[in-house]
Amino acid sequence: EYGAPDLAVMGCVSSRDSAGSTEAPPCRSDEPDDDFLSAEDCSAASDEPRSVMEEEVPEEWRESDLEYTWDMYKFNGRPPSAEEAAQILAIRHELRMELAAIPQHPELIGDWKLLRFLRGHRTVEGACAAYRAMLAYRRDREVERVRADLVDESVLLPGSNRLRLEEFRTQKWPYSLGKFEPLLRRAWDNVAPCVQHGADAVNSPLTFTYFRHYHLDRVIEQGLSDLWVEMSLYCDVFFDLLLHELSLSTGRCIACLLYTSPSPRDS
């Protein structure tokens, strides 16, 4: 609905739900909790090599409102294992040249980002290939330009690179940004067809899309196609930033849940 394939490229959602020097660069943020691979965290990580994908629904989750979230929780919710910590170090070594050359945004170079790629692609090789594809995507679509528009002092904690979540969610939600007002007014009758709708039991943000109200025919007729594509990119970057901040806050690799109403042809 708003670029789900792009979100997968950015590393925001898993495939199950739908993006110089030979030394390793100093890719850690000034914020101490941007990464989780401190010596203490690694020693506390589980030594259990069993894949999180193999786990069963916990007893206390069965026949409850939480059971429906288990497929996503087992993918994103578990803290990194000792095996995953070692794999992320291997990813950092393999990508050291790329990581040194890109902007040092925490949501781009942090351990949580690399864990997301590792869990989505299962192997160090797969994660590295997907990460490089994501970097090419960012260059092609000028993601830095969009990020600069979404991240400013109004949504940052003072003297920090951490987001003020409520301000970010309300002030930077792409459907309410002034630059996309022509879509709202001329195509959607001043009613946004996609809304934020809280979070589930493991703090994954929820959105609900009224697909029948997108009126893509009007978008085309009104000559708003390019603006629509631009808003899709803003949504990608919005969720990239939001999910990183939620991952820091919760200690788990948070994903987003996208719900839609039926399309007109399904009604």
Description:
- With 267 residues, the chain is mainly alpha-helical.
- The chain is built from 13 helices and 3 strands.
- The protein has helices at 4-9, 39-44, 70-76, 82-94, 96-101, 106-109, 111-121, 124-140, 143-150, 165-171, 181-186, 216-221, 225-250, and strands spanning 194-199, 205-209, 257-260.
- A 3-stranded mixed β-sheet has the order 1-2-3, with no helix packed on it.
- β1 (194-199) and β2 form a beta hairpin.
- α4 (82-94) crosses α7 and α4 (82-94) crosses α8.
- The protein is globular.
- It starts with a helix and ends in a 7-residue tail after the last strand.
- The model is unreliable at 1-33 and 38-55 (pLDDT under 50).
List strands and helices in order, with pairings.
Blueprint: H1 4-9, H2 39-44, H3 70-76, H4 82-94, H5 96-101, H6 106-109, H7 111-121, H8 124-140, H9 143-150, H10 165-171, H11 181-186, E1 194-199, E2 205-209, H12 216-221, H13 225-250, E3 257-260
Parallel strand pairs: 2-3
Antiparallel strand pairs: 1-2
Helix pairs in contact: 4-7, 4-8, 7-8, 9-13
